Amino acid sequence: xxxxxxxxxxxxxxxxxxxxxxxxxxxxxxxxxxxxxxxxxxxxxxxxxxxxxxxxxxxxxxxxxxxxxxxxxxxxxxxxxxxxxxxxxxxxxxxxxxxxxxxxxxxxxxxxxxxxxxxxxxxxxxxxxxxxxxxxxxxxxxxxxxxxxxxxxxxxxxxxxxxxxxxxxxxxxxxxxxxxxxxxxxxxxxxxxxxxxxxxxxxxxxxxxxxxxxxxxxxxxxxxxxxxxxxxxxxxxxxxxxxxxxxxxxxxxxxxxxxxxxxxxxxxxxxxxxxxxxxxxxxxxxxxxxxxxxxxxxxxxxxxxxxxxxxxxxxxxxxxxxxxxxxxxx
Length: 330
Ligand SMILES: Nc1ncnc2c1ncn2[C@@H]1O[C@H](COP(=O)(O)OP(=O)(O)O)[C@@H](O)[C@H]1O
Ligand SMILES: [Mg+2]
Description:
Elements (H helix, E strand, L loop, with lengths): L2 H11 L8 E10 L2 E11 L4 E5 L6 H8 L9 E8 L2 E2 L5 H7 L4 E4 L3 H4 L6 H11 L5 H14 L5 H4 L9 H13 L5 E5 L7 H18 L2 E6 L2 H7 L2 E6 L2 E7 H6 L4 H14 L31 H5 L5 E3 L2 E3 L6
Parallel strand pairs: 3-8, 3-9, 6-7, 7-8
Antiparallel strand pairs: 1-2, 1-4, 4-5, 9-10, 10-12, 11-12
């Protein structure tokens, strides 16, 4: 699908024709010969939340890291376009990226223990973006860090400002990372599996907290998740990724209620069957990066595949207000 189709999709989704905050057009990312992202199209409007759903290895983290400028040449080769508030990110200089990252674009990783620096107190780490991007004085930074800790539900924040990460529980560390990501009121938050390293008992709490803060700031957010039902429940839109391609993207309720792509349907039946306690996984596995089929990457596992599917890549089409890349949508 080209950008004209992406724009049609936007127009269908947003009749008031508001400018998208983030617009990804035909983005591809290669690591040497391996095409890790292939022709990704996305548009996110101010205040919208998008769930990026897919199995492990689909390329979700790669897309998030590329968006935030942490995967760049020469490590990888990028083609296509990513525009944030109209600024082309693929050509942005590192110095300009540094001004965006942690400021206009916040990032929450899966594992706070790995992301936080063990040598600095949590107060110092929350204060760092406040110094770098907002130039707040030392006193103001400490005040604001305590406020942020309070806003993410850390009890007695003033006492905990001087704690080191290892002195906090996993859930509290994740709250610290959320505070850091939101410190400068980002317009876009990228949250890469923000709760999957946590105990099941607190996953819902943390998810609710992030959503609550995103709404309070009126920010847009991309949540990388591997659970279609959770994504549809918490996000306005869903993008389903398979082997580096977005196979279906659209409003959550429609994607969940009547998935059009066979892969989305497979994911949905996993959810339904899980609910009834019998797991029916999609047979087969994601092809390795060095042996991707020439046509549709899902063809080898697809119950509906015909000859053309293995030979030619289906272009994304607009159907029922979403983009779907499949030769046999109906
Ligand atoms: N540092 C790396 N070097 C080489 N290949 C990588 C690296 N990181 C990820 N990959 C490969 O890129 C693909 C996408 O990975 P990733 O973006 O981590 O997927 P996801 O987040 O959806 O699980 C996978 O095939 C993975 O093996
Ligand atoms: Mg990942």
